[in-house]
Amino acid sequence: MKHRSDLAFSTSQRALLYTASLLVPAAARDEWRREWLAELWHVRRSCISIDDTFSLEAQREITSFCLGAFPDAFCLRNQPVQTGTPPAHVHGSAGQTLLWLAAVASICSVIASLLPGVQAEKEAARAQVRSNVLLIGDADSNSSTASIPTGLFRQWKTSHQRFFEDLAFYRVSRERATVGAVSMPWKVAHSTTNLFALLGLSINLADLDYADPNIPALILSRKVWIRDFRGDARVIGSTLNVEGTAVRIAGIAPSGSWQLPGAPDAWLLESDRKIASEAISKRSGYLFAALSRRGLDEWTGPAVSIAARDSQDFVMDLYGAPIAMPVAGPWSVYEFALFLAFLALPAVTSVSLGESQISSHRPTAKQRVWRILFLFAKLALIAAIGFYASLDIAYFSTPEYSPFAECLQLLACFAICLIGFRWAVADQRQRCPMCLRRVTNPATVGLASRTFLGWNGTEMICIGGHALLHVPSLPTSWFSGQRWLYLDSSWEFLFADPFVR
Amino acid sequence: MAAEAKLSHTAAMILQAISAGYVYGFSIMEMTGLPSGTVYPAMRRLERDELIRSQWERQAIADAEQRPPRKYYKLTNGGKATLEASRKRYPLLERLISTEEARSV
User: Fold this and answer.
1) Does a structural domain hold residue A242?
2) Is B2-91 assigned to CATH 1.10.10.10?
3) Which of A62, A80, A427, B105 is 20 to 30 A from A455 in CA distance terms?
């Protein structure tokens, strides 16, 4: 009876050989495995004693023999490389093409996964500003200008509002932020604490529950977080100085904050009382109002005019407009670009695959299915490259979502998909319908006949001897496009490569 | 011949072992004392350079002896010529692995 450890060793030694065989080219794998298993049988018989007693030394010797299979497998694997050129059956094959495309798609997807802007766009599509929030501004100035005096905010905040259920405000000023010995000029938004809650942008407010309530909380914009802190999440909770005042970083602004006017680098959350303090009451800022149920009922158009009185009892003409801008997200942009690319494809190339109807030796149904599957696989991989590469291009230097980057993504995706699809169709036309290998070997190179009676084209032959591709140099009414001429089996003996089927 | 000039001592030993009658991988390993990770890749290269050629044993013979068939190697004419040249280059080669020794195994 065999020792249980011996069985375990035997299994693991065979597993080693099977693993090594995966490195051997598929065409030679079976024979290689057969040889090594036969040798293993003899090695075991030589090393293990007749009475089958278990010996660790013998097992070590056998395992060492099996490990030698790996250099052997590598040697076989590298042999075609050492000859300088890949074998004919590999060069230009369908598998090689798909591998290249898959490799490019993988690289692009890895790069996209590392770009913070790509993640920000996905988040921006998910987290959007509430639709009932209005940005209130002066009717004579545009929405990006701070036009509401702090005093007006204080006045509205302290009085009863019929149409608004809550108000938030911030004013932006240029201030110096100091981290350690480094001083940075920032646009700091002095904001009410309810700003992000009113906008409906989720932020981890638990971070605000730090020990010292006298230190104000600072929310960093994504741009500053990545630019000045290299996207390090550990900065949350640390303190820094803003114009000599100690503040604590309480979190990172949500992706939807790109819509907030004034492009602040950070939001310093302060109490309403401090915001509306006398010393700064004449400075202007941005006012946000969440419509109450009654306000929503009264609201009819895209913008609303508001007449208000300031602290000196002057009448102010204001307007209110929603700031929520729908973000399509990467998938919606991609789907639209893909649709446009498919729509534009017939304009840049013929979608015909150059099929010939006049030959008696046509590919089998299986070969035709493989051909179509190969074309769809190429198109799918190119579409994947278009998705990831366009994200890479759009967000390579942009760490947060922006409408410009989204536009760039749309253009890049459209261009990549259109050029890629054009290449895929052109490549398909040049591939032998039988073996899907690129037909690159010229059999005849012709010039246009002066009389138009002679053959005036170029003939390319498949490396496996399956077909000839006739390409007219001068398209005529009787021979305008390329044609395949399938060769019968009598040609097979001329083509020695056994891998070409 | 370029192949003759490039033949290493290890490859020459393997050629000599095959010439002496050690015609499968494990016996060459035992004779030369080289590990499997050296012997088999070297034999692949020798076969690629057409100095040796391999042949599978007939299944009937292996079945009669109740063991798996093994792959045997033998020298080609080019291999024989290369081995002759290597013997001149490595005079001790023939004494390391002699034909008589193989016959007695």
Assistant:
1) yes
2) yes
3) A427
